[in-house]
Design brief:
Blueprint (H helix, E strand, L loop, with lengths): L1 H6 L5 H23 L1
């Protein structure tokens, strides 16, 4: 997650985590579906 802070230094970490939570959950779901 450090790279995200480098790319978006102006975005507060908690706010970024709230935005990224659904994206990361979708990413993990797609990964599991790909492996299944």
């Amino acid at each position: 997650m450090r790279s995200l802070h480098v790319i978006f230094p102006t975005v507060p970490a908690p706010f970024a985590r709230v935005l990224l939570r659904p994206l990361t959950s979708l990413y993990h779901k797609s990964e599991q579906a790909w492996e299944a």
